[in-house]
Specification:
0% of the residues lie in helices and 54% in strands. By secondary structure, the chain is mainly beta. Strands 2, 4, 5, 6, 9, 10 and 11 form a seven-stranded mixed sheet that branches. Strands 1-3-8-7 form a four-stranded antiparallel sheet, with no helix packed on it. The mean pLDDT is 95.
């Protein structure tokens, strides 16, 4: 499975961005997909996850009500709509695909989101 993120950039606080993660390869094997982020000097942290059918989502408390995760299985693409962005959302955002128990865990190379205050 290969993952390619896009949509990052520079935005002012209060603005919006939509990240995309295009998956290719054995995408049928993916169970859960998610977005993670890593700010300078910090550990990588979970932002949001979504199950294969899109029926179940999970969010970090810090982004609840502001970010929305979704996926289009027909396009093999996952999205992260980010609204009301804050300076503390500045980070490299990574796409993750998990094949589940006994399977592999895949990561994209990341896309940088910078929120200016």
């Amino acid at each position: 499975v290969q993952l390619v993120e896009s949509g990052g950039g520079l935005v002012q606080a209060g603005g919006s961005l939509r990240l995309s993660c295009a998956a290719s390869g054995s995408t049928f094997s993916i169970n859960v997909m998610g977005w993670y982020r890593q700010a300078p000097g910090k550990w990588r942290e979970l932002v949001a996850t979504i199950t294969s059918g899109g029926g179940s989502t999970n969010y970090a408390d810090s982004v609840k009500g502001r970010f929305t995760i979704s996926r289009d299985n027909a396009k093999n693409t996952m999205y992260l709509q980010m609204n009301s962005l804050k300076a503390e959302d500045t980070a490299v955002y990574y796409c993750n695909a998990d094949q589940g128990i006994g399977g592999m865990d895949y990561w994209g190379k990341g896309t940088l989101v910078t929120v200016s205050s």
